[in-house]
Amino acid sequence: MFKKILLATSGAPSTFGAARVAFDMARRYGAEVLVLNVMGVPTKAFSHIVNDVRTGEEIEVDDEYRAWVEEELKTTFEKQFEIVEYSQIKLTTGVPSREILRCARDEDADLIVMGASSGDSSVYRKGYPGSTLQKVAKAARCPVMTVHRETASYWGGFSNILFATDFSKQAENAFRFALKSAQEIGCDLTLLHALDISGKVLDQNEIEDQIIAARDRIRTTYVPLMGDFKDYDIEVWEGVPFVEIVKMAREKSADMIVMAHHSRELNPEKARIGSTMEQVILRAGCPVVSVSKPDKV
Amino acid sequence: MPEGIFCNKTPINTDEQLKATLNDKGGKQYYEEMNQLDVDSDKLWGAIRKTMKSRTRTWLEICAHCGLCAESCFLYQVNGRVPEQVPSYKIQSTLGVMVKKKGKVDNAFMQMCMETAWSKCTCCNRCGMYCPHGIDMGIMFSYLRGLLYSQGFVPWELKIGSGMHRVYRAQMDVTTEDWVETCEWMAEENEDEWPGLEIPVDKEDADIMYTCNAREPKHYPEDIAEAAILFHVAGENWTVPSEGWEQTSLSMFAGDWECCKDNVLNVYSAIERLRPKRAIGTECGHAHRATVIEGPYWAGREDGQTPVPYIHYVEWLAEALRTGKLKIDPAKRIKEPVTLQDSCNYVRNQGLKDVTREIISYIVEPGCFVEMAPNKEHNYCCGGGGGFNGIGLYREQRNMALRKKMEQILDTGCKLVIAPCHNCWDAIRDLEEEYEIGIRWSFLKPLVIGMLDVPEHLLPKDE
C-alpha cells in the first residue's frame, strides 16, 4: 500500500524521527523514499534569493548551493539511505507546505511523512497563516504521517494501530486507511471514540448512555466494513478528546494513531488550540497519521 | 568592442543562456564584465534620434531647475535631502547629458546612469504631479532604462527577468503545461470545500478572461484558487487562457522594449482567440500598467485601448460587491484599524483611487479604516517599485527607500495593511522583515473570502 513515501525534511534534528520512520517503513514494505527538501522561501520579489528554511539567512540558490544541500542530506541520512533499495532526493524552493503538496501530487505519493513544528519560524509564514503541517494535512490527497515524540516501538514494525473517530465523513477515509494498514501489516486495530465531555457537567447516567450509543455507532458504522478482519477492539472513553486518545495509545502500546483531519480553519490562533489532532501529535509517543481525502486510502 | 559572456548588448533568448546567467551568483562576473563593456555611441545616438519623442525633448529643455519636484520624491526625503536625489537633477545629469553629448559617453557614465535609473527612481511618477510644467521624470527614466538596456547596462536580475519573458513568456520559468496543471490542481484542491469549483481553461466567448502574475502559479497558487472561488461564488462565466495568461512585464522594468511588445501581444492574442467580453487582471500594479495602460501603445493600437475592456481586479471586486454578486457578512468585517496601500501603477497612473475605497466600505467596519497621509494619487511608492524590490545590487538603497512607507504606516497606528498589488505586498513584507514594526499585510482576495456570506447552494452538502 506504500509504494512511494514522501519524506519532507528540513534536515534539522526535529525531522530525524520522521526520517527514521519513513526509511524504516520503506525498507519493510519495499517502498521508495523521496526525500524532499525545500531549501528556502522566496523573497525579494521575483529574484531567486531565498531565506534558508533552517537559518532564516538569505541565500542564493545556484548549482553549487544545490550540490551542497544534497551532500548535506546524504550525510545526515547516510545510514538510512543504505537500508532502502529505492530513494531519491528532491530539492526545491518555495513555501514549504505548497511545495510538499506539489511534490506529493507530481509524484503521486502514497504517504507524506514529516516532522511536527520545529518552532514558530517567521520564514515559513510570509504573510500566509497556518503551519506547514496544518496546510499539508488539510489539502493532501494522501495520508500525512507526523512524527513528533517518537518512541522506539516502531523498530519492530507496527503492531498496534489506534484509530480515533469523530464519526465525520473524513473519519471514514481515515478508517479505511487504518483498516488497510492493519490488514496488510498484520497488526491489531483499536477503534476509539473519545466522548467529549470537557467543560460540561453531565449526569453520570447520561454519560454512560452516550458511551453505549457511541459503541453501537462504531459497531454499526465500521464493523461491517471489516469483513474477515477480527483483530480489533472497540473502546469509548469520556473526557477531553486529545487526552483520551493519547492515554489510549499508551494503554494499548499503540505505535501508530490514525485520525481524520477536517479543520477548515487555517488561522493559527483559532485552529491550533481547538485542533484535537494537533494536540495528539504534540503529545503522543508514536507517529500520527492524518487522513483527509479518500483518494489514497 | 568587448562584450561579456553574461553582460552584453544581446538579450537573453534561450533557456541555456538563462540558466548560465542565473548561475553567475549575484551577478558577480556579470558586473565585472560590465566594467569592460564598450558604449556603442553611434547606436545610442541613433536610438535617441529615432525614439526620443518631442515630449521628452521638450521636457528636457523646459525644465527650469526650480527644484519644486524635490520634496515630491520619497527617495529625496529618505536620503537626507541631498541635491543628487532631486528628480530634475537625476534626469538632467543622466538622460539630459546623454542627449547633449549626442551619445558620446563612456562606460563610467553609463554605469552612473544605471545606478540612477534603477536605484534612485522607481518610476512612481509622483514628481510629475508636482512639477509646475508637468514634467514627469518617471516617464523619462523609463525611457532612459530602454536606452541603457540596449547598451547592456542593466541590473543582472532584470536582464534575467526580461530573459524569462523572452524564453517562457512569463517572468518566471512557468511553462504552459505548468500553468494548466496548476489550474487543475487548484480546482481539485478546493473542490471539497467549494463544490462545483472550476478553473476553465481556454473557454471561448466567456464573460471574463482572467490573467495573473507568474509568481502565483510558481509559488503562491492559492491566489489563483482564491480568484476562482470568488468568481465561482459570484456566478461569473469566466476562463483563463492556456497561453497569454501572464500579465506582468519585468521587461518594462528592464527597458526591454521589444520584449514588452511581445508580452502584451501574447495577452492580446489570447483575447482575440477566446473572444471574452472583457478581461480582468490580478491584484498587481505594474501588470495592469503594462497590459492595460501602456500596452495598447506598445502593440501599436491607435486607439490606445485594449482589444476588449480590461479592468483591474479591484474594479471587478468593487462591482461584484456593489451589485450583490458577492455578499459580505457584516459580522465578519474587519474590526481593527486597517490601512490601504495605493499602488502607483493603477491609482496615480489610472485613477482607481475611489474603487479601492468603495471595497473598503464593504469589508471594513465603519470607523476602522485609517488613510495613510498622503494618499490616493498623492500616495508614496511602497519603496520597491519599478523593479527595485528585485535588484540585489541596490538592496541597501531599497531598504532605505522602505522607510517612507514604514513612517506612513506607523503614523496610521494600524497593524493590518491591505496591499492589492504584488509589488507593494512584497515591499511591505520586506519592510516588516527589515524593520520589524509588527504589521500584517494582505491581498484583498483572502480577506474577502473569509467574510463572504455564501449562498446555501454553494456550500458543501454533507456537513
Outline:
The complex is a heterodimer of chains A (297) and B (463). With 297 residues, chain A is α/β, with parallel strands linked by helices.
How does this structure look, described?
The complex is a heterodimer of chains A (297) and B (463). The longest helix of chain A is centred in the last third of the chain and has 19 residues, at 204-222. Chain A is built from eleven helices and twelve strands. In chain A, strands 1, 2, 3, 4, 5, 6, 7, 8, 9, 10, 11 and 12 form a twelve-stranded mixed β-sheet that branches. In chain A, helix 7 links the parallel strand 8 (160-164) and strand 9. Chain A is an alpha/beta fold and 297 residues long. Chain A has two domains: 4-147, Rossmann fold, CATH 3.40.50.620; 153-291, 3-Layer(aba) Sandwich (Rossmann fold), CATH 3.40.50. Chain B has 463 residues and is mainly α. Chain B has three domains: 39-154, Fumarate Reductase Iron-sulfur Protein, Chain B, domain 2 (Orthogonal Bundle), CATH 1.10.1060; 167-322, no CATH class; 330-450, Rossmann fold. Chain B is 50% helix and 5% strand. Chain B is built from 22 helices and seven strands. The relative contact order of chain B is 0.10.
Which descriptors would you attach to this protein?
heterodimer, A: 297 residues, alpha/beta, Rossmann fold, 2 domains, 11 helices, B: 463 residues, mainly alpha, Fumarate Reductase Iron-sulfur Protein, Chain B, domain 2, 3 domains, 4-stranded parallel sheet, 3-stranded parallel sheet, 22 helices, 5% strand
Fraction of residues of chain B in helices? 40-55%
Number of helices of chain A: 11
Number of helices, where a helix is a run of at least 4 consecutive DSSP H or I residues of chain B: 22
Q: Strand portion of chain A, in percent?
A: 15-25%
Counting copies of identical and different chains, the oligomeric state is heterodimer
Distance between the termini of chain A: 8 Å
Estimate the helix proportion of chain A, in percent: 40-55%
